[in-house]
Amino acid sequence: MFSSINRSSSRLFGIVGIVTIYFALASLLLLSFGGFVRPFQQPFVTTRTTTKEMMATTAVRMNSATTFLDTVSNAASEALGKEIQLTPTTGGGYATGGGGATTGAVLDPKTDTKYFIKSARNGYDMLRAEYEGVKAMADTHTIRVPTPIAFGTHESTSQSFALFEYLEFCNGGSKGQYDLGVALAKMHRTTGRSPNEEKPFGFHVDNTIGATFQPNLPWHKDWADFWDEHRLGHMLRLTNNAGGCSNEQIAALRQKTRELLSSSSSSSSSRGGDPIVASIVHGDLWGGNKGFCKDPATGEVLPTIFDPAAYYGDREVDVAMTYLFGGFNGDFYDGYNSEWPLSKGHEQRRTVYNLYHILNHDVLFGGGYIRQARGMIEQILSY
Fold it and tell me: Among this protein's residues, is 284 annotated catalytic?
């Protein structure tokens, strides 16, 4: 999809194709075999009840053996406050995401309403984290996301799921990229959303970046500490110090990274006095995780983002990643800066933040990414 990388994950909303057939067949198998539950063991799912004001955690215990789609239907019914009976359908953009989950669409024939569904065997923690990330972005009321509806597990098959609002995608038009930049900046600028006031950097659950575990806990008070422990340090451990860098070079890299990310740094890359705000960030904002959809009520074309690896951190991590793999043009950056201009020194911090993703691509795909990472390390040390 990109000129600079053969990215294997389109994750939440890919291309409708062969995997559509796979998902339908898999659903039929679950419909056929999902009802066999061990005696005295009832499926238990955790869902979120969605209202205009709030989403409250609800426990739903089924009173009889159910199929996979029955379990999803019951969870959706509880969350939406009305009876939902889901069946497989086409048009969902089925794909296998980098986290190992299958995505597609299901239909409630009674209301002719489609929903996006993402499912994975033994994938409860991953899908719950994705649900929570989309919910955190939705709670800002700034940028369009597929409204999260429910998540849970069909116990007898260990098939977990997350259910989302279905969006009709379209072309962004001449203003799409600019509007996307504005909306993203508005999401980042919605402050005071971190549930941890004393230590605002992190997230209340760990999640994944592609198929790679991404730690967000424990929370941190200092952004540079968070990045050193949960992002840079984590990837250095997974890549054997970026393919064997010396201990001295790694120590120098981590020290320089701390200097570049500190708001009190006196180096030339200082933010010019701008504070580091704990914004909700998408966390995996490559071109495949953004799009445009039509508002069903007004027909207005709206920018949308999805499939996050969300947490509370420096807003620049999202903007930095848009430079990696294409899909964003100058209008996007003009729109972003018109709403909330980037701080002084963001060009150097961009290299710091994108090193994390390139190291992760070495973990996921191997190939030449470690050489690219080593070059970025040399660049960071030269600042």
Answer: yes
Q: Which of 50, 69, 271, 296 is nearest to 164 (CA)?
A: 50
Give the C-alpha separation, 94 to 118, whole Å. 9
Q: Which of 108, 284, 307, 318 is catalytic?
A: 284
Which residue from 322, 321, 359, 325 is spatially nearest to 231, judged by alpha carbons?
A: 359
CA dist list (Å): 312 to 5, 125, 137: 27, 19, 10
Q: Mean pLDDT, 10 residues at a time, over the chain (383 residues)?
A: 39 38 39 30 35 36 66 97 95 55 94 96 96 97 97 96 96 96 97 85 97 97 97 98 97 97 64 90 97 92 97 98 96 98 95 98 96 98 96
d(CA 274, CA 64): 57
What does pTM read for this prediction? 0.83
CB of 369 closer than 8 Å to CB of 362: yes
> Is the preceding omega at residue 109 within 30 degrees of 0, hence cis?
no
What domains can you pick out in the chain, each with its CATH number? 18-165 (3.30.200.20), 176-382 (3.90.1200.10)
